[in-house]
Amino acid sequence: MKFNIITLGCKVNAYESNYISESLENNGFLFCDDLKEADIIIINTCTVTDTSDKKSLKTVRRARRENPHAILVVCGCSSQNNKELYANMDIDILLGNKNKSQIVNLIKEYIEDKKRYDFITSDRNIPFEDMFITKFNQVRAYIKIQDGCDNFCSYCIIPFVRGSIRFKNYKEVLKEAKALVDKGIKEIVLTGIHTGSYHDSGKDLTDLINDLSKIDGLKRLRLSSVEITELDDKFLNMLKENKVFCDHLHVPLQSGCDEMLKIMNRKYDTTYFEDKINKIRSIIPNIAITTDVIVGHNYETDELFQKTYDFCKKINFAKIHVFPYSKRTGTAASRMDGEIKENIKKERAHKLIALSDELEKDYYNKFKGQEHEVLIEEIKNGKAIGHTSNYLRVEFEENLEPGQIYTRIIP
């Protein structure tokens, strides 16, 4: 039988979908590019914004419309968050975020008995659902080392749909990374919902990074995201010594205004954030610091937004991922007054995106003409496209092999 899998949302979902795909192939199922030709369609959904929910629901409806006879499997954050909506759709196997590792068995059972499966638990205290992959569908491989979040930022639904923090076994992470490197993977990205909280067997994230860096053949190690409060002295010392860890950190800011950070229930202020970034840059002056910022959160006035804009400019990020605030029912922000009009959110988003474009261009230009190692990821329109350690996206009109690292001058 042939299957197709559609992944929406974050790197954690991408990793889980990769595991599901590999598990299906190991059990004799064949991947199929064409949705209409697939016997099984799996959709891994996202709920981080209202737009994510709409896209997830639209994707499920389209899949059923285009292939009414396929076994339709839906899982992930949107189905976890909107069980009633999905329960009334024509779905054969409906999950939330628990039992994703059991999808192959559930499909086999459905093929046998044709009984609809519907299981979504509201329990936050669930164990880490272990998955293990030996190959990845991209040149840069992800490993999920952590799941869940206990921070409860005012705007965020994720703690409600992903549960409490929990972690992958330390030795299993090392074993999985080695399996991927043995298959030719040069770069690994450690990912999770709250990746920086990782600890297991008396060891923390920094210990894990250092041990992973010793794997023969692993050229690069990267974090998907880490909170500013988790960049302690031990981590900073690792940055000084570790030659495998990339010159890039994605550190969510969310707001560059202390008043808004309190409203958002973030665990730092702008002074703390700036001081920590300055310490990092004292170790690696040209490190790429990228970030996330939410605009238009409840109570954000023009003046408070301007503080965020000015702070982002001052920190001089290499790139800013900008998100207009999206109301998520059940969060603290969804019960707040002071809602911002959609047109104002859009205006602020456009202004901050324009700043990001300017900062990104300035950062790139600092490295023009310099020699850097580039991991080639794809060949497109006759061009080899890849990224440097500090996450510059570069293109070369050369016949280079994806998955390999080349030393080239930044054009």
Could you outline the blueprint of secondary structure elements for this entry?
Blueprint: E1 2-7, H1 11-26, E2 30-31, E3 40-45, H2 50-66, E4 71-76, H3 77-81, H4 83-87, E5 93-95, H5 103-113, E6 117-119, E7 140-144, E8 146-147, H6 158-162, E9 166-167, H7 170-182, E10 187-191, E11 199-200, E12 203-204, H8 205-212, E13 220-223, H9 233-241, E14 248-250, H10 258-263, H11 270-283, E15 288-295, H12 302-315, E16 319-324, H13 342-365, E17 371-380, E18 383-388, E19 393-396, E20 405-409
Parallel strand pairs: 1-2, 1-3, 3-4, 4-5, 5-6, 7-10, 10-13, 14-15, 15-16
Antiparallel strand pairs: 8-9, 11-12, 17-18, 17-20, 18-19
Your description of this structure?
By secondary structure, the protein is of the alpha/beta class. The protein folds into 4 domains: 2-119, Methylthiotransferase, N-terminal domain (Rossmann fold, 3-Layer(aba) Sandwich); 126-246, Transcription Regulator spoIIAA, CATH 3.30.750; 250-366, Transcription Regulator spoIIAA, CATH 3.30.750; 371-409. The chain contains 13 helices and 20 strands. It has a 6-stranded parallel sheet, sandwiched between helices. The chain is globular. The N and C termini lie far apart (46 Å). The mean pLDDT is 97.
